[in-house]
Amino acid sequence: MGRPARIVLAGQGVNAFGIGLVMPFLLVYLHQVRGIPLGTTGILLAIPGLVGFGIGPLAGTASDRLGAKSVLVAGSAVSGLASLLLPLVHGPAGAIPVLLLMGLGFAVFFTSQTGLLSLLVEGPALDRLYALDFVLLNAGIGVGGLVAGAVVSVHRPGSFTVVYLVDGLTSLAYAVLVSQVPVPRRAPRAERPTGSY
């Protein structure tokens, strides 16, 4: 599949591990550590998904126009920033902008990563690459969740800060890694047989 695609996949695995550190215990953090009522926490946790639903198509268009690699780097950096800001959340008002950033980062980097992979590999190998991409995503989230489960405790709020910092660093490392990936020139979109976002 080539070195550039392997780099993106390795970065995806590390980034997914960071996501796994955060996502399974975000409800616990907001409700039990920060004292946000459970109903409000549930509403807050819908924010990233709603943002992703609205931003996903725009992220695809941006990938087409600005380049999937550039958009992926920006999305990963935004996602990392959101995780680094999570320890500063103390109530619903502080959670809203952080979760908006998180949703924006996720939507942008997941969409543009798929586009970037399609530029790095062509033909039948692309199907296998997409399959491997999702295997690494699920494995990373699963392993990250297991590690976070062994680390975090509501009796030690700083333990949540540790996993959020690690997630932020994995996202930023992914952005740096992907920024180094050479992307081959392809025929202009009008000449390519496949569609765009």
Notes on the structure:
With 197 residues, this protein is mainly alpha-helical. Helix content is 78%, strand content 0%. It is built from eight helices and no strands. Helix 4 (47-66) packs antiparallel against helix 5 (68-85) and helix 5 (68-85) runs antiparallel to helix 8. The chain starts with a helix and ends in an 18-residue tail after the last helix. The model has no long low-confidence stretch (mean pLDDT 90).
Low-confidence stretches: none
Biggest pleated sheet: none
> Which structural class do the helices and strands define?
mainly alpha
* Average pLDDT for all residues: 90
Distance between the termini: 24 Å
Strand fraction: under 5%
The helix-strand sequence is HHHHHHHH
Overall form:
globular
The percent range for helix content is over 70%
Question: How many separate helices?
Answer: 8
Number of strands: 0
Radius of gyration: 17 Å
